[in-house]
Amino acid sequence: QVQLVESGGGLVQAGGSLRLSCAASGRIFSDNSMGWWYRQAPGKQRELVASISSGETTNYADSVKGRFTISRDNAKNTMYLQMNSLKPEDTAVYYCKMWAYWGQGTQVTVSS
User: Fold this and answer.
1) Which DSSP category does 12 fall into?
2) DSSP 3-state of 88
3) What CA–CA distances, in Å, run from 12 to 9, 58, 109?
4) Residue 112: exposed, middle, or buried by beta-carbon count in 10 A (0-12, 13-18, 19+)?
5) How many Cα atoms within 13 Å fall on the side-chain side of residue 24?
6) What pLDDT digit, counting tens, does each position of 17-58 carry?
7) CB-based contact 2:99 (threshold 8 Å)
8) How far apart are CA 80 and CA 30, in angstroms?
9) C-alpha to C-alpha distances, 108 to 4, 18, 23, 31, nearest whole angstrom
10) Are 49 and 81 a contacting pair, CB within 8 Å?
C-alpha cells in the first residue's frame, strides 16, 4: 500500500522560509516518477503549485515562480518543496501527490 507522509508545515512570518517534505512508502520514487505539490486556501479550489517530471523538468505556478523550488531525493524516496520569501497569500493546506496518491496535507500559515 502506497502512503505519502507530509511534514514541514507551520507558522512563519512574511519573508520567511519553510521546506515541505513528502516521504513515500510502498513504492519506489525514481527519476521517471512525476510528483506534484498542490495547495488549497480556505474557500478556494485546490491549485497546482509545482511539478517535477522525468529528467528533473520542473514547472511552477506564476504566483510562486522564483520563490518556490520543487526537488526530490530518490535515495530517500522523498519529494520536497522549498518555499522562500513567503507571503500571506501563500497561506493554505499544501498537498503532495505522487502517481495517483495524495498526502494528508500540511498547514502553512504566513503572518503579515
Assistant:
1) E
2) helix
3) 9, 25, 6
4) exposed
5) 27
6) 999 999 999 888 777 789 999 999 999 999 999 999 877 899
7) yes
8) 14
9) 18, 9, 18, 28
10) yes
